[in-house]
Specification:
Elements (H helix, E strand, L loop, with lengths): L2 H17 L2 E6 L5 H13 L2 E5 L2 H10 L13 E6 L2 H15 L3 E7 L2 E4 H8 L4 H35 L1
Antiparallel strand pairs: 1-3, 1-4, 2-3, 4-5
Helix pairs in contact: 1-3, 2-4, 4-5
Length: 164
């Protein structure tokens, strides 16, 4: 790869990093082409992009965006998940890693803050929006049902006292 090609790749990656406030660093060693294609397809469906890049070029692009927290994780076969919304990408990443034992999550950057692989896995275990809304609605329904039960019991006590 010539110097001009490397510079062009760094500039393209720098531009991509500016539009992606969340970045996950992964080690993709051991993924065959079919699994890598499936992984990229799932990430695209979640609105994310997976970029395999040389570590030195990734480090230059990160430095250009004043991101220094991820430099220590750029070793070995490195892939970057670039996304605007951290939750769906983390969900795809953790589910795929759970199914195939790969890729390995090294670290990440969520809205400018460095995070660990455990944080990304916890983020991936959060239920999706419709499920969370259903859980809130169920909780509210439970509270209302309990309140109605208390009012019913109070009414029954008053009618029992009046009959006695």
């Amino acid at each position: 790869m010539s110097r001009a090609e490397r510079q062009a790749e760094v500039e393209a990656l720098t531009a991509s990093l500016k539009t992606a406030p969340s970045i996950y660093v992964t080690d993709f060693a051991g993924l065959d082409v079919a699994k890598m294609t499936e992984f990229r397809r799932r990430l695209r469906g979640a609105g994310a992009r997976y970029v395999v890049v040389k570590n030195t070029l990734a480090d230059r692009a990160l430095q250009a965006n004043t991101v220094t927290a991820l430099s220590e994780f750029l070793a070995g076969p490195t892939g970057l998940v670039l996304t605007a919304d951290p939750l769906p990408a983390a969900k795809v990443l953790t589910e795929f890693a759970r199914e195939h034992k790969l890729p390995t999550i090294k670290a990440g950057l969520v809205d400018g803050a460095p995070v660990t692989s455990q944080y990304i896995e916890r983020l991936g275990s959060i239920p999706d929006r419709p499920t969370l809304l259903a859980m809130v609605a169920g909780s509210l329904n439970n509270i209302l049902a309990s309140f109605a039960g208390c009012l019913e019991a109070l009414r029954d006590q008053r009618s029992a006292a009046a009959n006695a």
